[in-house]
Amino acid sequence: MTTPLAAVAIGSFQAEDRAALIDLWRACDLLRPWNDPIADIERAVTGLSSKLFVARNEAGIVGSVMVGYDGHRGWVYYLAVAPKVRRSGLGQSLMHKAENWLKARGAPKVQLMVREENTQVRDFYAAIGYEPNSCALVQKWFKKVEAPQTGPTQNNQAQSNQAPTGQARSGQTQTGRTPPAAGPGQLKVTITYLEMRAAPAAGPRHPPPGQQVALLKAAAPTVHFYRYLYD
Fold this sequence. Notes:
Layout: E1 9-12, H1 18-27, H2 37-46, E2 50-57, E3 60-69, E4 74-81, H3 90-103, E5 110-112, H4 120-127, H5 151-160, H6 223-230
Parallel strand pairs: 4-5
Antiparallel strand pairs: 1-2, 2-3, 3-4
């Protein structure tokens, strides 16, 4: 059952909201490896020209919107509504909160970015008066973080290594390079990035005799985690 909008209050982000807010962003598929959510939150709440709003009900954090003003136009990021309270008008209320914050600072317009694969949200923005523009988005990283390979690129790499889907060849790294042999007192380790997007067709596989395998699940990995893996 959808939570009534009257039971939800929109207010400023508080430090104790951080973990729940990141969980919300994860549930809404807003997190990307190259965007550290902790750093994004810190910049938003400490900057003089940005604001982070969260929506709360008796269950906790159920919505968010981040807004900033660069002196020329406003920008909106991290609009999120928990699945259990969608279609209650909360998304529109959060956008109005961000828009009113910008209007109070004299911003003449507001813009936001929508990822190409996020087709469902475009109807939402059109319904509240947002229109596509003809500008192309270009970007430049000052401190670039390489994203782990996924999708076709990763599949092509696995095929070039002649390894079964979802596995890496024994003795090779995820980039295909053979690591140096372990010396006395050293442990030979291979780190492989694996993203499961569908149930495996084959049954469970067991490591060959004599090999030790450890499986690590990283919950809410930060950008520093990926730097550790790939730098």
